[in-house]
Amino acid sequence: MTASLFTPLTLRETELPNRVMLSPMCQYSAEDGLATDWHLVHLGSRAVGGAGVVMTEATAVSPEGRISPGDLGIWSDDHADALRDIAAFVRERGSVPAIQLAHAGRKASKSRPWEGSAPISEDDGGWETLAPSPEPYPYDGGETAATREMSADDVDQFVEDFRAAAERALDAGFEIAEVHAAHGYLLHEFLSPVTNRREDDYGGSFENRTRLVREVTAAVREVWPDDKPVFVRISATDWLDDRESWDLDQSARLAPLLAEAGADLIDVSAGGIHPDQEVPEAGPGYQVPYAERVNEATDAAVGAVGGITEAEQADQIVRNGSADVAVVGREFLRNPYFGLEAAHELGEDVEWPAQYRRGTFD
Ligand code: FNR
């Protein structure tokens, strides 16, 4: 039988009630990395609104891994406690609570978008950023914080930070852990020759550049229970064909290695490594072909993201076998009930919350 958007998907022993996933989206509304009421309302609304998986924004595994001072974090037990009620609420609504674990690498220490997304220097309350190589991200003007090339000890600590973060996330009640290896943040910086100029075991060859993401995935998998899935988000390409860079061929080669390391779903995004990137027209489903290619290369499930805004379109992505899950970002910012409305449009028998039934279609 051909699967559709509302066919449940079982990954390990975790059942996703449908294949609509809320894409991770920073809210810049945490306090010292701690989740606030905003996160409960934002994530809770998307669970009420019918997302099968509710993924938190990038949640930093260490303080210096935050993009901005407003990012979520999970580097202490207090941080896990602040997320506990959110995970429970999402689960009570029948959605699967998921957390994206992240480190921003050299793209850390920036102000919130509504404050300009500008680099914050150490003098202005910013912090030293970590990266595979010491070049800072080439921002257009503005003084950046210093970027430190990670030592062997830093690399070991980084893997341990991911492992500890996953343990805390599990304790907080999350059922899916996603490793953020996309968008020019730290793990992507190791993958891409644009940012990785190391000469040790973590730089140079494909095997070396992919070592850290494989180690991190394996570390998360070690602490994540056998019945629960691990996802990895990658950038399928740097969109920098004019130079040696990370591309779709390497992503297709990486996907089965991530599956071997313990990933159950590859969430396929793109870009973010360098401002010279040539982003194609961001029209409907603009990254779906990348998901298709990765899907051909691995037995793991695959998520497609980017310009998915319509029920029919999301349904086709699943029906065509392009991907197993439709990951929806900005449309969910506009419409928290995208999941329920998609079900209605597609003629699926999905119940609205009892509290809202008098406002529904029949
Ligand atoms: C994002 N995106 C993003 N991606 C990610 O992996 N972790 C994150 O924390 C964020 N944060 C974020 C914040 C905001 C406000 C936006 C709009 C986007 C990228 C997002 O998950 C998604 O991949 C893109 O927005 C493309 O999908 P849509 O929006 O076209 O459905």
Can you walk me through this structure?
The structure is a single chain. This protein is α/β, with parallel strands linked by helices and 362 residues long. It has a single domain (9-356), classed as TIM Barrel (Alpha-Beta Barrel), CATH 3.20.20.70. The protein has 11 helices and 13 strands. Strands 3-4-6-9-10-11-12-13 form an 8-stranded parallel barrel, surrounded by 7 helices. A two-stranded antiparallel sheet has the order 1-2. The relative contact order is 0.14. The mean pLDDT is 97. The chain binds ligand FNR.
List the main descriptive attributes of the protein structure presented here:
single chain, alpha/beta, TIM Barrel, 8-stranded parallel β-barrel, 11 helices, globular
State the share of residues found in helices, binned by percent.
25-40%
What structural class is derived from the secondary structure elements?
alpha/beta
Number of strands: 13
By CATH, the architecture is named Alpha-Beta Barrel
Taken in chain order, the helices and strands follow as: EEEHEEHEEEHEHHHEHEHEHEHH
Mean pLDDT: 97
Give the number of domains.
Answer: 1
Count of runs of 4 or more consecutive helical residues:
11
- Bound ligands: ligand FNR
By CATH, the superfamily comes out as: Aldolase class I
CATH class: Alpha Beta
Major sheet size, sense and barrel closure: 8 strands, parallel, barrel
Q: Say what the CATH topology is.
A: TIM Barrel
Question: What low-confidence regions span 5 or more consecutive residues with pLDDT below 50?
Answer: none
Multimer state: single chain
Strand content: 15-25%
Cofactor: FMN
Pfam families: Oxidored_FMN
GO molecular function: FMN binding; NADP binding; NADPH dehydrogenase activity
Region (Disordered): 107-128
